[in-house]
Amino acid sequence: MALRTKLTGTKKITVLGLMLAAGIVLNLAENTIPVFTVLPGGKLGLANVVTMAAMVWFGPWTALLLGIVRSALTGMLSGMVTMVFYGGAGTLLSVAAMYVFSRIFQNKISMVGLSMLGAFFFNIGQIAVAAAVVHNLQLFRYLPVLTLVSTACGLFTGLIAGKIAKRQMTEE
Description:
The structure is a single chain. The chain has 6 helices and no strands. Helix content is about 75%, strand content about 0%. By secondary structure, the protein is mainly α.
């Protein structure tokens, strides 16, 4: 995950703005997929492709900021303001885990592996916030179910993010 873009100034801000918009649209569109409304907390995670691309192109701090701003704006636009806390905590743990594992394992972990790890830690962040809100640690019993879903979804989003990163490498 050593690839970084050479964009600076106005071009960088423009790309980040487009990435933020894409993440918001993907997140809002994803909320309309009825399959994932059956499983509370289960989502495909398409907006995470944007976060992973930001991590590869601009680094973990930019990815974290982009993910948290996306969560906040999506929560406000959808009317689910509490999602700011769930998405923010999930994003924080997800980006931190992806960064730590990418540093520990250097070039030995793929985008798919990082995506699956990120999805798992995102779920931990969400459940931690939910457990704090309802004062019940038993919510962590739901983690195995979410882990099964996030493994498949993380695989899918990791494949997409890997293709995007590879394409960017060939264009520079």
